Amino acid sequence: IGYGTRAITDVCPEAIILLIVQSIFGSIVDAFMVGCMFVKISQPNKRAETLMFSEKSVISLRDGKMCLMFRVGDLRNSHIVEAQIRAKLIKSRQTQEGEFMALDQTDLDVGYTTGADRLFLVTPLIICHVIDEKSPFWNMSQSDLKEEEFEIVVILEGMVEAT
Question: Is residue 100 located within the same domain as residue 119?
Answer without folding.
Answer: yes
